[in-house]
């Protein structure tokens, strides 16, 4: 049986919601990515 993308996404959401440490890890990665984007952006706007 093939799963649709929506089915796969829904299953991943259920898994994440049952594992708080996974959510924390994802949030940390997103924060790190945002920090890098801000740093890179500020580097390019310097004169």
Throw out a few tags for this protein.
47 residues, single chain, mainly alpha, 0% strand, FbpB family small basic protein, elongated, SenN/SenS
Structural notes for this entry:
- It is elongated, with a radius of gyration of 17 Å.
- With about 45 residues, it is mainly α.
- The chain has one domain.
- The chain has helices at about 5-15, 20-45.
- Helices cover about 85% and strands about 0% of the residues.
- The longest helix is centred in the C-terminal third of the chain and has 26 residues, at about 20-45.
- The chain has two helices and no strands.
Write a concise synopsis of the structure shown.
InterPro entries: SenN/SenS. The protein is mainly alpha-helical and 47 residues long. It has helices at 5-17, 20-45.
């Amino acid at each position: 049986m093939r799963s649709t993308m929506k089915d796969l996404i829904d299953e991943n959401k259920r898994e994440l919601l049952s594992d708080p440490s996974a959510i924390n890890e994802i949030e940390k990665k997103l924060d790190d990515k945002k920090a890098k984007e801000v740093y890179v952006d500020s580097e390019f706007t310097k004169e």
